[in-house]
């Protein structure tokens, strides 16, 4: 008997664009849901032309391909009464609807939760905004870098003499998508009990604040004292030495939390032995890190790992992607899959990171072309061509 994914037989209508909403729909698709991406005719999702390093495939950006794989696609002109009627019939059959437009956009299209609920009372409606509906920021553009900047996140990265440093990827979009997925799954459980639908709301700003819950909680309970970034090798504003990344003779070595006294013995670094008190490891962390950095440059990464790892001292080599994909630890995860359009255009991308009952979830279906499934879906689901 073939393995059935847990969300099999659920229908998701994905109105979202860019990264946050589509990433939530992607995860539901990975877990077995049927996801139909709904776009405007001709131009489609703006993400189709949001290129990373000017790299495209079959007319669309690799970013669009990677976050919209394993979805079907239809294009609808919502100013056309016939298209609106077809969409309403789809909504009546759907289990989940996802959108991530600015507040008010879906209401102007008569696709807000209150309107959709009249068509389908049991639908779970998932929404991502930039900052919610209230307050002076509600109309600001909900873009990842802008939200990182407003949320204080940049002040956790970089050394104390550097300007705020953003993450090197759209981490807030991905976090918001993950949180929306969690909310939707919780509401699916609730619906199985009550039969009622729900309205799930997530904002990028709340996702950014939740991502910082550990350090933000410390700040709120430490007399609102702002943390100070290390002047050297900063990696966490609230952790002392040796926490950080260090250059070696041939690469880089990451050191996590650990005893400086133990480290001095394992590395044969006499200069570290004066720092006997754990309080010094934070109060004098910059001095310790500089001494440690000079010492680690005298030998190779492998040399230091061979001293630290047998003692279970928390450390790791810092790898580039080129180095990572050659590692057996990466290969054994089987994280890469090949997806294709019409068996002619293929793309290597990551798979669903979740395993259930030992199963790895992959799908060969790539992202849809604009409106590629219109005729088939209308005929199959609505008995119209």
Give a verbal description of the structure.
By secondary structure, the protein is α/β, with parallel strands linked by helices. 36% of the residues lie in helices and 16% in strands. It is built from 16 helices and 15 strands. Strand 9 (244-247) and strand 10 (252-255) form a beta hairpin. The protein is elongated and about 80 Å long.
Question: Which labels suit this protein?
Answer:
15 strands; alpha/beta; elongated; 3-stranded antiparallel beta sheet; 385 residues; 16% strand; 16 helices; 36% helix; 6-stranded parallel beta sheet
Q: Which term fits the overall shape?
A: elongated
Unreliable spans = none
Q: Separation of termini? A: 34 Å
Biggest sheet, open or closed, and with what strands and sense? Answer: 6 strands, parallel
Question: How many distinct beta strands?
Answer: 15
Kindly summarize this structure in a few lines.
The chain is an alpha/beta fold and 385 residues long.
Spell out the blueprint of helices and strands.
Layout: E1 11-14, H1 20-30, E2 34-39, E3 56-57, E4 60-61, H2 62-67, E5 72-75, H3 81-93, E6 96-99, H4 105-108, H5 113-119, E7 124-129, H6 144-151, H7 171-194, E8 198-203, H8 204-211, H9 213-220, E9 244-247, E10 252-255, H10 260-267, H11 278-283, H12 285-296, H13 301-308, E11 315-317, H14 321-324, H15 328-331, E12 336-341, E13 345-350, E14 355-356, E15 359-360, H16 374-382
Parallel strand pairs: 1-2, 1-6, 2-5, 6-7, 7-8
Antiparallel strand pairs: 3-4, 9-10, 10-11, 12-13, 14-15
Helix pairs in contact: 1-7, 6-8, 7-8
């Amino acid at each position: 008997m073939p393995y059935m994914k847990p969300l099999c037989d659920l229908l998701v209508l994905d109105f979202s664009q860019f990264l946050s909403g589509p990433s939530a729909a992607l995860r539901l698709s990975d877990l077995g849901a049927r996801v139909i991406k709904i776009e405007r005719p001709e131009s489609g999702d703006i993400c189709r032309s949001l290129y990373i390093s000017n790299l495209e495939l079959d007319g669309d950006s690799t970013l669009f391909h990677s976050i919209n794989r394993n979805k079907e696609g239809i294009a609808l002109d919502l100013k056309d009464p016939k298209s609106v009627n077809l969409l309403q019939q789809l909504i009546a059959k759907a289990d989940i609807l996802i959108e991530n437009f600015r507040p008010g956009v879906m209401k102007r299209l008569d696709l807000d939760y209150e309107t959709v609920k009249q068509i389908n009372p049991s639908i779970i409606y998932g929404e991502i905004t930039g900052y919610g509906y209230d307050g002076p920021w509600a109309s600001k553009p909900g873009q990842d870098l802008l939200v990182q900047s407003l949320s204080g996140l940049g002040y956790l990265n970089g050394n104390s003499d550097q300007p705020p440093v953003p993450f090197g990827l759209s981490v807030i979009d991905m976090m918001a998508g993950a949180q929306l997925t969690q909310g939707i799954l919780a509401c699916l459980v609730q619906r199985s009990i009550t039969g009622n639908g729900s309205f799930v709301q997530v904002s990028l700003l709340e996702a950014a604040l939740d991502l910082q819950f550990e350090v933000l909680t410390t700040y709120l309970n430490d007399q609102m004292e702002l943390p100070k970034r290390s002047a050297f090798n900063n990696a966490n504003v609230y952790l002392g030495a040796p926490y950080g990344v260090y250059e070696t003779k041939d690469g880089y070595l990451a050191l996590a939390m650990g005893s400086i006294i133990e480290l001095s013995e394992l590395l044969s670094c006499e200069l570290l032995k004066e720092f006997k008190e754990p309080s010094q490891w934070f109060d004098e962390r910059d001095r310790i890190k500089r001494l440690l950095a000079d010492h680690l440059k005298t030998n190779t990464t492998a040399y230091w790992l061979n001293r630290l790892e047998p003692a279970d001292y928390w450390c790791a080599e810092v790898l580039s992607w080129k180095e990572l994909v050659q590692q057996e630890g990466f290969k054994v995860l089987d994280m890469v899959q090949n997806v294709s359009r019409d068996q002619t255009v293929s793309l290597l991308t990551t798979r669903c990171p979740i395993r259930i009952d030992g199963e790895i979830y992959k799908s060969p279906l790539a992202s849809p072309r604009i409106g590629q499934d219109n005729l088939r879906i209308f005929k199959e689901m609505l008995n119209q061509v």
